[in-house]
């Protein structure tokens, strides 16, 4: 996860690009995520910009804003958020997204930096939160961190039947809530789990969630300051590979055979930056996150070329 880098562009370019977004038929509606992971952005534009200039904004400038937005699905979500930001700024209101996946969050914050008269705040509820909500609006309206995240404690007797992240997630979704309304789930072992959720669904979950797998549970709202989390435990090591293909690097990172990793890719068990991998030949770059079902996550660190034409790759394994 990486913190967005501030990029300044001319006021006229920004204003024209913002208006171009409003005419796009495609639009609607770090790695440091920190406490109340908050990243504030604010820019001003020149009032001298004429209406004739903005009306003639080019679609190419919209494309420039979205350069490097990654997967098509990520780009589509980022466009929705850009339109939300444009509308919030023009109407002088504050709007909020649902919980975003890390790739969408990262790309959205990077692109929002390039828009004039827009402030954006991302919050996950606690340090290292992966899934965050973004609030957007005019800087004069968005003056503090909105109260847009609630936390629930899910408790039960898990001593003889430990439950996984998937067990808690599946039970919550089983109540009818969609994934976008939920943030991170913090496992607490025998004590259960803590979950981030949009405030408007707190009462519903407290009354609807009564079991996780076969364990009866109760749900209680808790303040964010009471969240009990720990920084992720990691181990770092290096590998030297002939290529940066995911099957080569990930097999070394997860200590499995290359053929086994290829099978896992075929089964849809491997993701890069939370997007499913469809080809074993997909190449990795510094900063990528590789996750494998049942194995955990791996971050690609620094990559250097060796004298023999191979690649020395730093790997960061989340334990």
Supply the helix-strand structural class. alpha+beta
Which regions have little confidence, pLDDT < 50, spanning 5+ residues?
1-62
Span between termini:
16 Å
| Number of extended strands | 14
What's the helix-strand series? HHHHEHEEEHEEHEEEHHEEEEE
What percentage of residues falls in helices of 4 or more residues?
25-40%
Give the neighbour order of strands across the main sheet.
9-14-13-12-10-11
Overall shape: globular
Radius of gyration: 22 Å
Largest sheet: 6 strands, antiparallel
Q: Which strand-content bin applies to the residues?
A: 15-25%
Helical stretch count? 9
The average pLDDT value, as a whole number, equals: 80
Structure commentary:
A hairpin with a 2-residue loop joins strand 10 (270-272) and strand 11 (275-276). It is globular, with a radius of gyration of 22 Å. It has helices at 11-23, 51-55, 59-65, 72-91, 102-112, 165-173, 202-208, 246-253, 258-266, and strands spanning 95-96, 119-123, 133-137, 150-156, 182-187, 193-197, 211-212, 215-222, 234-241, 270-272, 275-276, 289-292, 296-305, 311-318. By secondary structure, the protein is of the alpha+beta class. The strands form three sheets. It has a six-stranded antiparallel beta sheet with strand order 9-14-13-12-10-11. Strands 5-6-4-8-7 form a five-stranded antiparallel beta sheet. A three-stranded antiparallel beta sheet has the order 1-3-2, covered by helices on one side. InterPro entries: Nucleotide-bd_a/b_plait_sf, PSII_S4, RqcP2_RBD, S4_RNA-bd, S4_RNA-bd_sf. Pfam families: S4 (PF01479), YlmH_RBD (PF17774). GO terms for molecular function: RNA binding.
